[in-house]
Specification:
- By secondary structure, this protein is α+β, with helices and mostly antiparallel strands.
- Helices cover 24% and strands 33% of the residues.
- It has one domain (10-194).
- The strands form two sheets. Strands 1-2-3-4-6-5 form a six-stranded antiparallel sheet. It has a two-stranded antiparallel sheet with strand order 7-8.
- The longest helix is centred in the middle third of the chain and has 15 residues, at 102-116.
- This is DUF3000 domain-containing protein.
- Pfam families: DUF3000.
């Protein structure tokens, strides 16, 4: 006899239905990923990439991950039965990457996106990491580069589609596409605009 994974609880199935029904920006191409194991009894994972090249798994403009966790035991650290964990990263122009306020701005974008999408939440936590690199030797032609990475989690209170829409907005904003800029040109990592 082959063991089968337990069926999703009714509340988790309802949450997944909301996530699948969410209307996301055309700039973000999403796909379901295998959910992480060991974090919660029930989990769902989604990847999102800004205008990826055909056949590519990641985008040079920006990428992100969205994970919904459900544990009916309500872990103390979560303050509820649900937790969202997300990741977003995008290349930056070097002069933006060295700006001392860029990390605070990225965190504010996340909170603003949650609020603007009506995604009620509590217990947010996370980090924003900015890196600046310089190529040498055989990588000298790469020149300088910078990248911004946001890792965050929060406990959702409200419809799950609002939370995945907020995450999608943040991934797009990190790539230089603010709300209302669908199909606008994106600066590639070397500063040339591409549609």
């Amino acid at each position: 006899m082959v063991d089968q994974a337990p069926a999703a609880s009714a509340s988790f199935a309802a949450a997944l239905a909301q996530l699948h029904a969410a209307d996301l920006r055309d700039d973000l191409v999403t796909r379901e990923l295998p959910a992480p194991t060991g974090l919660a009894p029930e989990a769902f994972a989604l990847a999102g990439d800004i205008r990826p090249e055909p056949g590519a798994l990641d985008s040079v403009y920006g990428t992100g991950r969205f994970v919904l966790l459900h544990d009916r035991e309500e872990p103390d650290a979560w303050g509820g039965a649900w937790r969202i964990v997300c990741y977003a990263q995008a290349p930056l122009e070097v002069d933006i990457g060295v700006d001392p306020m860029v990390a605070e701005v990225a965190w504010a974008w996340l909170l603003d996106a949650l609020d603007e999408n009506g995604a009620a939440y509590h217990s947010p936590s996370g980090t924003v990491t900015k890196t600046v690199s310089q190529g040498f030797g055989s990588l000298a032609a790469e020149g300088s580069g910078s990248q911004l990475e946001l890792r965050a989690s929060w406990t959702p209170d409200g419809p799950f589609d609002a939370h995945v829409r907020a995450w999608a907005e943040v991934v797009c904003m990190l790539a230089g596409l603010p709300p209302g800029s669908e199909q606008a040109p994106v600066l590639n990592p070397r500063g040339r605009a591409r549609a």
